[in-house]
Amino acid sequence: MSRTPLQPGTVAFVGAGPGDPDLLTVxxxxxxxxxxxxxxxxxxxxxxxxxxxxxxxxxxxxxxxFGPSMSQDDINGLIVAQALxxxxxxxxxxxxxxxxGRLDEELDAVSAAGIDWHVVPGITAASASVAxxxxxxxxxxxxxxxxxxxxxxxxxxxxxDWRTLARPGEVAAIYMGKKSARFIQGRLIMHxxxxxxPVTVIENASRLDQRVLSTTLERLPADLAExxxxxxxxxxxxxxxxxxxxxxxxxxxxxx
Length: 256
Ligand code: SAH
Fold this sequence. Notes:
InterPro entries: 4pyrrol_Mease (IPR000878), 4pyrrol_Methylase_sf (IPR035996), 4pyrrole_Mease_sub1 (IPR014777), 4pyrrole_Mease_sub2 (IPR014776), CobA/CysG_C (IPR006366), Siro_Cobalamin_biosynth (IPR050161), Uropor_MeTrfase_CS (IPR003043). The chain has helices spanning 26-34, 46-49, 72-84, 103-112, 125-133, 162-165, 181-190, 220-227, 242-255; strands spanning 10-15, 37-40, 57-60, 88-93, 116-120, 147-150, 152-153, 156-157, 172-175, 198-203, 211-216, 233-237. It is α/β, with parallel strands linked by helices. The model has no long low-confidence stretch (mean pLDDT 92).
């Protein structure tokens, strides 16, 4: 942290949460209300941007999956240039800025320019997604750890510790996992995962257009293709919606 800033402006890296404006932190809301400039991602919803200081300049630095967009260098340059005008800059990122948010590149650029900065955490998509299905991310007797994975990274589909992930009871939140669903399914089954492992995909978690797809590892790619989800979606490996889980337990008891 730059304790003795050399430059007049400031940058707050702010988590916008999963979409519902009520899930912003009070600190995030204050930062938005006091901002001179808001540089936001494509994922940040309009009704959250509407909470910013009406006099603030809103700049879209949207990046989309593999698609074309502003380069990271250009975004870094934009943040630094705006702060150097003396502005209070809010760099607004979906969810929590520290989860798959390319935060470090931007922090490095701002620090190198001698600009004061701080991070305001936000509610990450995984938290909003489990809330939507009434499950918890960890559970005594089931899983003592939860992993946040990305479906793809700079090199393409991301590699992970598939052997561990394939074990019964494992829970993982897979971000950016739609395009890589078949790859992930193949790797897990190859490493011995049960094809009946529950998988839940939550699209637009916390938003009015939220959708929940409850499936299994076996059916994941086909069900995803059929559901044709167009919004941001989080894939939870190892969790079924609470209601579906209860129905499953009941039918097993009926069979017994
Ligand atoms: N920093 C963000 C994640 C950015 S990566 C966070 O903490 O949530 C972008 C991915 O996040 C999307 O591809 C999707 O997998 C997930 N995501 C973001 N918002 C979401 C939402 N409202 N519902 C479901 N998934 C979401």
